[in-house]
Structures are given as C-alpha cells and as structure tokens.
Automatic annotation (TrEMBL), chain A:
Protein's organism: mine drainage metagenome
Single GO term (MF): oxidoreductase activity
Name of the protein: NADH-quinone oxidoreductase subunit N
InterPro entries membership: NADH-Q_OxRdtase_suN/2, ND/Mrp_TM
Transmembrane segments: 12-30, 37-57, 102-122, 128-147, 159-183, 203-229, 241-261, 273-292, 299-320, 326-348, 369-392, 404-424, 449-476
GO-annotated cellular components: membrane
TrEMBL record, chain B:
Protein name: NADH-quinone oxidoreductase subunit M
Major localization listed first in the record, in broad terms: membrane
Keyword list, A-Z: Membrane, Oxidoreductase, Transmembrane, Transmembrane helix
GO MF annotations, alphabetized: NADH dehydrogenase (ubiquinone) activity; NADH dehydrogenase activity; ubiquinone binding
GO BP annotations, alphabetical order: ATP synthesis coupled electron transport; electron transport coupled proton transport
Compartment list: Membrane
Entry's EC annotation: 1.6.5.11
Membrane topology designation: Multi-pass membrane protein
Gene expressing this chain: nuoM_5
Keyword flag Ubl conjugation: no
Amino acid sequence: MNLLSSLSPAYAEIFLLVMVCAILITDLFIVNHTKTITYLLVQLSLLGCSLITVSTHEDGIVHIFHHMFVDDLMSDVLKLLTYLSVSMMLVYSRSYLMARGLFTGEFLALVLFATLGMMVMISASNFISLYLGLELLALSLYTLVALQRDSAIATESAMKYFILGAMASGFLLYGMSMLYGATGSLDVNRIAEVIHQGTANKPLLVFGLAFIVAGLAFKLGAVPFHMWVPDVYQGAPTAMTMFIGSAPKLAAFAFVMRLLVEALQPLMIDWSGMLMILSVLSMAVGNITAIAQTNLKRMFAYSTIAHMGFLLIGVLSGTVEGYGSSMFYAVVYVLMSLGGFGMIMLLSREGFEADNLNDFKGLNQRSPWLAFMMLLLMFSMAGVPPTVGFYAKFSVLNAAVQTGHLPLVVMAVLFSLIGAFYYLRIVKLMYFDAPESHEKLYIQPDSSLLISINGLAVLALGLLPNTLMSVCAVSVQQSLLH
Amino acid sequence: MIFGYPLLSAAVWLPILFGLLVLATGNDRNAKMARTIALVGAILSFLVTIPLYTGFDRMTSDMQFVEMKDWIARFNIHYHLGVDGISVLFVLLNSFFTPLVVIAGWKVIEKRVAQYMAAFLIMSGLVNGVFVALDAMLFYVFWEAMLIPMFIIIGVWGGPNRVYAALKFFLYTLLGSLLMLVALLYLYHQSGGSFEILDFHRMAMPSLSAQILVFIAFFMAFSVKVPMVPVHTWLPDAHVEAPTGGSVVLAAIMLKVGAYGFIRFSLPITPDASHYLAPVMITLSLIAVVYIGLVALTQSDMKKLVAYSSISHMGFVTLGFFIFNAYGMEGALLQMISHGFVAGALFLCIGVLYDRVHSRQIVDYGGVAKKMPIFAAFFMLFAMANSGLPGTSGFVGEFMVIMGAVKANFWYAFLAASTLIFGAAYTLWMYKRVIFGAITNDHVAHLRDIGNREKLVFVFLTVAVLGMGLYPLPFADIMHTTVNDLLVHLATPKVLN
C-alpha cells in the first residue's frame, strides 16, 4: 500500500484544506461584493467532501497517522451531517449577511476552517488530534463572532467567548495531561486499556476526569459552565449564532464519545454521576431562565442549554443504546436549531433584526406558511409528537429508563413541561396576537424553500423516525466494536 | 379489510387529508370553498366509519378490523389499529360530531375559515387515532398530537381570555401526558420490549407498589382529561373561552378520551392497583358529582354552568368504572356517549344564543321562548336530557350507574343519586331564567329563530338523544361482550408475588 492510498480515510479533510486555501486566494481576485463565485465554490467544496466521504467509506474501523486519526461509521455519518448543516447554514445566512456587509471571503474561509476543525474532532483518536480539531474550530468561531467589528455588542461577546473558551481549553488540557501522567499515553484506545488493567493511579485519573468533564461542559454549554452561551448567542450576528448552535454540536457529541466513552469507559461510574449533575442543572436552569427572556436569540441560548442537558441523559446512561439516542438527539437538535435561527434571519431585513419575541406577533396573518413552519419547529423543540423532537426525547428517556434512572427521567419530563411553555409562547405570538407591523415580508426564494424543507423534515422525520434512529444507533454501535 | 379498504386507517387519515386539503385553499377569499370541502370531508369521514358498526362482530371481545404494520422497528413499535366493543362506539361518536361542528361554524366563523375547519378535521382524525391505536406509542402520539389543533382552536377563535385558557389547557394536559410517557417506558422494559397494549394487559407486574406507581402515572394523564377533581380547573376556562365548535368537541369528545384511557390502560394494566385505590377514585368521583353539581348551581355564565355540569356527569363515569360491576361499567360507557350528545347539544344551543346576542351571561337573557319558539323546544329537550329525564339518553347511563352503585355500597348510590336533584336544579333553573319570563332587553326582543342549518344540526342530535333514551339496546349490545371480558380480566390478580 503506497502512502497516498493509505491516507484515503483523510481524503475529505485534505481536500477541504486544499479548497480553503484555493478559495482564500481566488477570493482576492473577486471584486464583486455578492461573492457568488466564492459562495458556489464553498458549496461545491462541501459537496465534494460529502462525495469523498461516501466513496472512501470502508467497513470497520480504520486508523491512520499512527493511530491519531480514525475512520469509522460514526465519523462518516457525523461528517456528512456536518457538511449538510454547514451548507444549510450558508444558504440561510447569505442574504442576511450580505445586507450587513459581512458576506466576505474571510467569512466563507473561516466557516470552512471551522468545518475542517469539526471533521478533525470527529475523527480524532488521540488527545493531540482532538485538541487540534477543537482549537481550529474554536478559533474560527471566535473570529466569526468578532467579524462584525464595528458592533460593540458583537465584539464584547466575541471577547467573552474567547476568554471563557480559552479557559475551557485550559481545563481540558490540564485534565488530559493528568490522564497522560496516569496512563502514559495520549491514545484514546490505549488509555482505555491501561485504565482497564487497573495499574493507573486512580485518584489522579478521577482528578483528570473532573477537569475533562468541566472542559467538555464548557464547550457544550452545560450548567454551571454555561455563562458564555446567552451572551454569545445574543451578541453575535444571527448567522454566526446559527453556526455556533448547529454543526459544532455534532462535533461536540463526537468529542464526548471519543473522550468519555472510548478513552474513559472504565471510569463510567465516575463520569456518569458528574454528567447527571450537569444534566439536571442544565435542564433546570435552561428551561426556567428561558421563560424570562424577551430576546429570541437569548431564549434559544437557554433552550440550547436545556437541550444539552437532555442530550447528556443519553450519554450518562452508559449504554450503546444511550449513546445512539444522544447522537440522534444531537442530529435532531441541529435540524431544529437551524430552522429556528433560519426563521429569525428570514424575517430580518436590512437594519432590522427579527430577534425580539414581539417581532413574531401575528406572523400567521402575514405569512401563514412561515408561521406553520415555525409552529412545527417550536412543537418539535418542545418535544410534542408527531414532530421529530419528541422521538429525540423519547429515545434518551428510554435509554435512561433502561438503566434504571427513573427519578432522573421524571425530573427530565417535568423540566420539559416547563420548557413547553416558552415554545408555546412563540406559537401564541404567531397565531393568537395581531401583528405589530403589516410591512410586506421580503423573503429570499432559496432560504424560504430551505425553511420549508427544514420544517417539513421535522414533521416527516417525526412520522417516520425509524431510519434516522437506526442510522445513529448502528453507527455508534459500529464505532465501539474493537 | 372486509370492505375492501382499511376501515380504521380511513377513519383516521381521511379527515386529516381533507383537513390538509382545506388548509390548501388558503386565505379567506376562498372561504366558501374551504367550508364546502370541509363539509364533504366531514361527511365522508363519518360515512366510512359506518361499516365499523354494521360489520362488527358482537360475539367476541377480540380486536376487530385489525391493521398491523411495522412503524419504528428499532423500538418494536407498530402501526397497530383495531377496535373492540368499547372503542368502536367512540369512533362513531367522534365521526358523528365532525359534520355537526363544521355546520355549526359555517356562518359564525368569518376569519381564517380554512384554518378553523382544517383544525377540526385534523383533530377529528387524531382523536379517532387515539381510540383505535393498539400500540401504546401510537396511542401516545395521537394523544399528544391532538393537543396542537385544540390549542390553536381555543387560542385563535376563542373569547377574550383565550390565551390564558389555551396555555392552561395545553400545559395541564401535557403534564399528565409526560408522566404517562414515563409509565409507558417502564412497561416497555417490563414487558421485554413491547409497546403492544394487549401485551401490557396480559403482563404480570413485579409488585403491587409498582402497579400503584404506574396507576398514578396513568391517573395523572387521564384524570386531567376527564377531568376529575382536583385537576378539573382547566375545563371551565377552556370551555368558556373556546369558540362554540371547540366547546362541543371538548365536551363531546375530548373528555371521553380521558375516560377511555382508564378503560384501555389503567383498569386492565393495573387491576390490583385499581382495586386498591378504588376508594380514592370513588371519593373523587362523588366529590365531582355532588360538589361540582353544587358549584354549577351558582354559575352565572351559561357555558361555565354546562362545563361544571360536564365535570359532574363525568364523575358518574369514573364512579361507574371503579365499582367494578357490569351495571356500573356499561352504565358509565352509556353515560359517556349520552353526555357526548347532550353536552354537545347544549353547547350548540348556547352557541346559537351567543351568535345573536354575544353574551353568555344568564342575566342578559329572559323571554327567549317568545322570540325563538322552535329553538326553545330543542333547548328544552336537551336540558331535560341533561337532568336525566327518563326517555332521554341521559337517564339510561345514570340509572345503570346508580344501580351498580347500590350493589357496591348504598351510600355511594345515595350520594350519586343526588345528582338527579342537583342536575335538574341547575339545568332547569338556567333554562327557566334564559327562556321563560318577560323579555328583558332589546337584544332579546330582536332575536330571530333558528334557521334551517341550525335546525338540521338539532334534529340530528334530537334523534340521537331520544333514540338512545328510548331504545339503548343497540349501544349496550355492541359493548356487552367486551365489558364482561374486561370485568373478568379485572377480577384476576396480576401481581407476581
């Protein structure tokens, strides 16, 4: 096997890196401010990545780069979903960003760099590559948030994001170094083996684990490490908020899987308890605080926190079933989140952000179809059948019941009842109230088509959830077979 | 598939498809088309359910017209439909009411007609789904999904305080439902990975305390819907604020869904807990019958009065379930159907008055009989049925439940029978104040009597109320085998140790 063909699992990453550089240079020669060519090139690169990922797929688990990089079914599925959600995010945000003069070559390049970071995170099987991917993603995101440099609030939130994010990275690195000290390895599978043998220093391991969990919680935005989430979500331009709230959650899920499940499975009893605290607190704080919000983006921020609490339920139940359900939850969450932020951007105009709750008043009278799509998205976030959000909740709760976490499940359903209130409030505003303005909505054809697909997908996947559920379950199962 | 098409799927999906079709007619410029399509859809949806009655085999308590397909294979969830002697009646009741609701809203609803009609049609299909689902998750999906159209109906077309009422309705019911979901997940794991309701019926439970917990979870879901005291407070609000059609569906159909849940889930899945907790349930039922009956007496708002009367009548239903004998059970089921007709009719009567005078307060009326004699006659009949006059449908169920209660305990029967006095008192007193006496104000003086469209609706309901009162056998006959089987099932302990 020659060098080039042995690298085939990483072809997609290599291709994307080449494309980013090419796009960055090409963009210099494009003066047109609509950046159509650059935009199309970006979309084509994402398409190309998906084709490569599909065509280089191999059964089983393949490691390359001295066990730094892994290619399994889970990574392929997650990568494909990442491309899809990045591409959707670009369609949604194009006209929004153009109206604000932010649709620049740098924006597109940074998005692709962040995508590359996510791909590396998803496929990492070594602490070094995990951290590398994470930082590539995080640095791109910090910059994206700060891209609107003449907006004080955006700059402020970028600063907060950066400082807290850097601290979280510090936590992670500290935890990783302790694990390295205890096990003598940075390799995910090797660490699991060493811990399993029982020769490692247990207190040191648990100490390292605590730091790692704290770092993860920062990145996921779980309570009590959630402080940055509302500020960043509200402060960043909506397109960036959408980006932060979508694909990176898939990467974060992979990150949790690689770190906690693959490397630290033998310590499950320890981290399961920690995650339970994080999960309950996230659901409580997220859902209760969201009620008090008047800014939609901030409300979504708290709702994200609550959703992350739910997602953790699947992981902490510690079964393959549970991990699969968490993955399903992450995918569903990304779909809903894209739709929710997409709707905000769709209703925004030049010089007007539709991010206040009252901007949704009477939407049903202005555009019944958009209101109906938002209704589907909101009921899905609230977890009401027949939308797919229900099955996301159902599957994580099922995993928790299976492992005997009944009190946790009861708490989770009670918090989701509280959560239902603020989603319902949006439906109430759209359907029951009279509109504040009767201005005609200017809606781009591409993003309105996409929001329709997005909303109907939430319904269709809710009517027939089996395929997506099985894909998630099988891919997690496959990646855990050693 | 005796008739060449899957009957139950048709009963569920036909109204939903028509609902979507109505939605597609768009804004109010096409209101006429929306109404017509809705009516055609509603009538067709009723017609497709008639073979369920004619083709029903009365000799067996097995599920009939069964359809079974894989749905979510990963969790072993099936698209499993079927009816027995109990659920078939409710499918018919629900489908019977859909055209009536469409006709009742024909002229009154002027804004967003398509959405209004569509919401009712979709809800009708979803409610049918609740009654025919034999897979617990399928049941749950229909059960929750039907909240969405009702939420919209109350919130968009309701009265001044509609937002509060809609949110209260939704959150109350969601709380119960979510706890039921936990119970279903528990049962799923106990049964070794099956969501089939019939498997749950056959399955033994590890202990009485487990049964009691499951019973309580189900109780939370179903008692909110019935509603039983003390979780009944959403109902008067929802009824008062909902548009006429919404009140009719709430009273005639939605409340039955809760009671049906007791029959399908609580009683057969947790029989021992049901026996153990029966005194509590009976107490709550009697409180509903007596106390809520007294509360109804003091109401000044007609809709609120009928709403409280509904709670009181539903107390009879739950009483009938938990005295565990054939009279009680069949009486309760007949009472459910009768209450569907009567409460639906009463809300339509109030709707007729409200459309003309725009007030639900009793004091705003008086002497209506002089201006609307035909209406007064229909109203009289339904008021009598509500007070349980022999010869109307209201009598049959109440009488049977009281008979059953006498068998169980004299005092139950004594307290329950008080409803014959209170029920008559609050209904007839309201009737007297609204219909008789001198004409009190200009609004009443300018009333026109009901038109043909309204007459048609009332004639249908009169036939139903009198028919069931004079000759209840067709209703009792169809449920008989199933009820007996359920009682045998209930008498068998299901605890493992």
